[in-house]
């Protein structure tokens, strides 16, 4: 989870998931769509990995800027 989202823990991330005839996808804050995944668990894990990678990217940007 991104640090600035920490205060929004009660919000559901379900709106990030899209199910259609092609499968299950997740949508990022940047409006990129990833998938298809075979089930919600797989999509959720991929989303968690994506968010963790974005956190690392943000941290490296902050380190370079400092």
Can you describe what's shown?
With 66 residues, the chain is an alpha+beta fold. It has one domain (3-65). 39% of the residues lie in helices and 21% in strands. It has one helix at 40-65, and strands at 17-20, 23-27, 33-37. A three-stranded antiparallel sheet has the order 1-2-3, covered by helices on one side. The two termini are 23 Å apart.
Quick description:
39% of the residues lie in helices and 21% in strands. With 66 residues, the chain is α+β, with helices and mostly antiparallel strands.
Mean pLDDT: 79
Structural class: alpha+beta
Per DSSP E runs of 2 or more residues, the count of β-strands stands at 3
Q: Radius of gyration in whole Å, from Cα?
A: 14 Å
Q: What spatial order of strands do you see in the largest sheet?
A: 1-2-3
Q: What is the share of helical residues?
A: 25-40%
pLDDT under 50 segments (min length 5)?
1-13
From N to C, what is the helix and strand string? EEEH
Largest sheet: 3 strands, antiparallel
**Distance between the terminal alpha carbons, to the nearest Å?**
23 Å
